Request: fold
Amino acid sequence: MTLIPGDGVGPEVIAAAVAVIEAVGVTIEWDRQEAGAAAFKRYGTPVPAQLLRSLRATRIALKGPLETRVAEGWRSINVYLRRTFDLYANIRPTMSFVGVPTPFRNVNLVVVRENTEDLYSGIEHEIAPGVVESIKVITARASRRIAKFAFEYASAHRRKSITAIHKANIMKLSDGLFLKCARAVARGYPEIRYTEQIVDAACMRLVTDPGSFDILLLENLYGDIVSDLCAGLVGGLGLVPGANYGDKGAIFEAVHGTAPDIAGKNVANPTAAILSSAMMLDYLGYQREGEKIRAATIAVLRSRKALTRDLGGEASTSDFTDAIIHGMSRA
Ligand code: ATP
Reply:
């Protein structure tokens, strides 16, 4: 497996995830690789050839956040990696934790975000001074396969409903095509309830009745924005894991970025990285171990004994990690 500690808080939270995987009894041979600012300093590029070689060979990575601003000519290294390996489905399971202070309860939803196109196509140009265009690309192929992924995910995880989120009242052609594809796929899964909602109304419903959502199916940009909103519902970016799946591989990573304001201080919340690593274990066939990690994490949060600063506690990254490892050893 490829291990990319990344930048900012990345090395701290990834070290926590690696320690938890080891403690649950799964032995993984890690191929440690640098990317982002760490790689740029050393190799003069944020995406060294050996990183790409490693990803091609292992097809699976656990990754910390990467700083993109380091190198000119790179819009986003994350986008680059997702597109290079065609990791088209970004999945972010978002749930309320007992013990985490937030005004919202009973959130248990999954954001399924298309990862390869939309306004992230990178096609932007200046037509005349003061006038620029950014092109939103939506294809039937990408829309169908993300919809199919969402319905397959729903079936596999016994989820009951999927809401496609869109702005087809304004972007009639692009979002219209996305919905048309989702509807066609939905017809093949009559046991799963399929509904649609306009993105602005969906945002309001997310903060007034978040418990009413199950799976959210979104294009790339709405998915990016709405998934941060969902992280806010459950207590912040430090808590939400993520995975980018393709047909031939996957990269597991927390939703949060490099958090430079708290990097290197041993105070970052490692929950998101630890839960991402549990998703990786599921993918590798170690569901029992993945579940054990999730249960121990939930229990530590519930006990409120080792909460990190972002959750109003005083525990360090390593205190929190040790509490999870201790909890698993007693389970
Ligand atoms: P980037 O440019 O890499 O996205 P950012 O600072 O703009 O970095 P995030 O890294 O996602 O965006 O951080 C946003 C805020 O959330 C910051 O105040 C950060 O401290 C906080 N945050 C993010 N991740 C964590 C975490 N794991 N634990 C605690 N706080 C976090």
Remarks:
- The longest strand covers residues 89-95.
